[in-house]
Design goal:
- The protein is an all-alpha fold.
- The protein has one domain.
- Helices cover about 95% and strands about 0% of the residues.
- It is built from 3 helices and no strands.
- α1 runs antiparallel to α3.
- The chain is elongated.
Length: about 70
């Protein structure tokens, strides 16, 4: 269960890293307009990192909801 507890920190770290890479590409117009493929890959990584974070939060919500429902009987 410790892996699940530390997973959110890892995912948030990935989001921050990918966001910094994407923002640095946005701030440098030569990179953004010159290398479209790397710009797209940077956005794709950021999008996937956000999706992983949302899915983790959704799974956590379902675990809590299931526990509460089982206590109600």
């Amino acid at each position: 269960m410790t892996e699940y507890a530390t997973l959110r920190k890892q995912i948030v770290g990935d989001v921050k890293i990918n966001k910094n890479q994407y923002d640095s590409m946005l701030n440098d117009p030569e990179i953004a307009s010159g290398d479209i493929r790397s710009f797209y890959e940077s956005y794709y990584k950021l999008h996937n990192a956000h999706n992983a974070l949302f899915e983790h939060d959704r799974a956590n919500h379902l675990i809590i909801k299931t526990a509460i429902d089982s206590l109600r009987g």
